[in-house]
Amino acid sequence: MLKNYESMIVISPELSIDDSKKENEKITSFITENKGSIENTDEWGKKKLAYEIKKFKEGYYFVNYFQFDPEMISELERIYRINENIIRYNILVKEKKGGKNGS
Fold first, then answer.
1. With contact defined as beta carbons under 8 Å apart, do 34 and 70 qualify?
2. Beta bridge partners of 68
């Protein structure tokens, strides 16, 4: 059963905007090639980081909303970790409205 996820990645500012988009496309392609589906992608562009990460003060932000097999999330995280151009990432499970606490 597929679950809904939200993932933010911050890509190195050393890349051009076009190259950063290609890096994000690699991620979305991995998801779709493994029976997931992309609902939406928000490109936030180059933003200043709240604090320095790997000696960078800026990064390109992308937020992907997708459905994916929970068993494949560890592989997605591995791809994030080994990609030197991704300086930070997170993956969140999106709860449906009216989640566990009924709100």
1. no
2. 3
Strands 37-53 and 86-93 come out as: unpaired
The whole-angstrom distance between residue 32's C-alpha and the CA centroid of its chain comes to 14
Strand ranges in 1-103 using DSSP code E only, listed in sequence order: 3-11, 37-53, 56-68, 86-93
Q: What is the largest CA-CA distance in the chain?
A: 44
Q: How confident is residue 100, by pLDDT bands cut at 50, 70 and 90?
A: low
Please, how many CA atoms are within 13 Å of residue 58, restricted to the half-sphere of its CB?
12
The answer to whether the predicted template modeling score (pTM) of the entire model surpasses 0.85 is: yes
User: For the chain, which domains are there?
Assistant: 3-93 (3.30.70.60)
- Residue 25 is which amino acid? E
**pLDDT-based confidence at residue 98 (cuts at 50, 70, 90):** low
Q: What percent of the chain has pLDDT over 90?
A: 89
